[in-house]
Write a structure and sequence with these properties.
Elements lengths: L1 H11 L2 H20 L5 E10 L5 E12 L3 E3 L1 H11 L2 H23 L4 E5 L2 H5 L5 H10 L7 E6 H4 L4 H13 L2 E7 L7 H5 L4 E4 L1 H4 L7 H15 L3 E5 L4 H9 L4 E3 L7 E2 H9 L8 H6 L1
Parallel strand pairs: 2-4, 4-5, 5-6, 6-7, 7-8, 8-9
Antiparallel strand pairs: 1-2, 1-9, 1-10, 2-3
Helix pairs in contact: 2-3
The protein binds ligand C2E and magnesium ion (MG) (3 copies).
């Protein structure tokens, strides 16, 4: 009956959930203004070669600094941006920003450093964002295709839509590289690795968190690394926080690493001050940090 239904609903919405719903509504409202009011900023987290700790590229990570809420985590607002479709506009902003940054680093420091950007599956499905728009933006700013890498997740590769496959192919044909992000947390349908040409496989940080000798997680990492190499892919481990994790992964043959052990994500100014002012190719994290 309506009464029972009403009572159930009353029980269903606990204060905590009500706050979640309210929080969500607030975020939807505020997201709409965020681009216009320039509340977003891209941060850059170094990805290093495990052996030398040379920086080989950076991952662009969006930061939302809201005037009253402060920093809002992408884990909180990216899913909402995806549900509401706002991710299209945000994604285009991220891309333009990364291309402009790449052009600036080339101009000011003569550095070709690849910027890896996260691309939501929603953007791949969207027809208003055309691959050629992005390619012409890069051409206009004289940014080489090899300086941009696109991070996608496993779910995208499961999509039946021809569109997704065609777009992915178009990026690769233009010379952009492609990373498979958060590997191991999605559907992990291995057959898709053979169908799509992927340059890098990123081992999700949940496998790196509890990495110890003789752990199942280490066996998994070792197996992923061997498989990726046999398929011609390089491996990046994310979420490396300790020397032990770094050493175990390096010994297992992992190519690259990303994590707080090496560096947090930094705003462009901080990144430049730390790694570019005294730039001598190739960038050596050790020397630059101590020197
Ligand atoms: P992701 O693409 O897997 O990015 C890696 C996340 O791990 C980042 O979180 C990074 O700050 C964090 N991380 C890096 N090293 C460590 C570490 O050593 N320990 C731990 N615990 N975490 C580490 P962040 O910046 O909060 O981003 C979360 C997620 O939000 C990203 O996961 C990505 O899926 C999404 N995201 C971030 N920026 C963008 C964007 O510009 N566009 C889209 N579509 N998604 C984005
Ligand atoms: Mg990523
Ligand atoms: Mg990742
Ligand atoms: Mg992740």
């Amino acid at each position: 009956s309506a009464k029972t239904h009403g009572r159930n609903r009353f029980n269903y919405f606990t204060p905590a959930m009500q706050n979640d719903a309210q929080k969500r509504m607030l975020l939807v409202q505020e997201l709409k203004n965020a681009i216009l009011q320039q509340q977003f900023e891209l941060y850059y987290q170094p990805i290093v070669e495990l052996g030398s700790e040379d920086i080989v590229k950076v991952e662009a990570l969006i930061r939302w600094n809201h005037p009253t809420m402060g920093f809002v985590s992408p884990a909180d607002f990216i899913p909402i941006a995806e549900e509401t479709g706002m991710i299209i506009e945000i994604g285009n902003w991220v891309f333009s920003q990364a291309v402009a940054q790449s052009a600036k680093w080339k101009q000011r420091f003569n550095v070709d450093i690849q910027i890896s950007i996260n691309k939501s599956p929603i953007q791949f499905r969207d027809d208003t964002t055309d691959v050629s728009d992005w390619l012409s933006q890069m051409a206009e700013q004289h940014v080489d295709a090899k300086n941009i890498c696109i991070e996608i997740t496993e779910g995208l590769l499961l999509e039946k839509e021809q569109n997704v496959e065609a777009k992915l192919l178009a990026y690769r044909e233009a010379g952009l590289e492609v990373s498979l992000d958060d590997f191991g947390t999605g559907y992990s349908s291995l057959s898709y690795l053979r169908k799509f040409n992927i340059d890098y496989l990123k081992i999700d940080k949940s496998f790196v968190n509890n990495l110890t000798p003789d752990s199942n997680d280490l066996s998994l990492c070792e197996a992923i690394i061997v498989m990726a190499h046999k398929l011609g892919m390089k491996v990046i481990a994310e979420g490396i926080e300790t020397e032990q994790q770094r050493n175990l992964l390096e010994f297992a043959g992992c190519d690259y690493g990303q994590g707080y052990l090496f560096s947090h994500a930094l705003c462009s100014e901080e990144f430049e001050n730390k790694y570019m002012q005294q730039y001598v190719a190739p960038m050596r994290l050790n020397e630059l940090v101590s020197g």
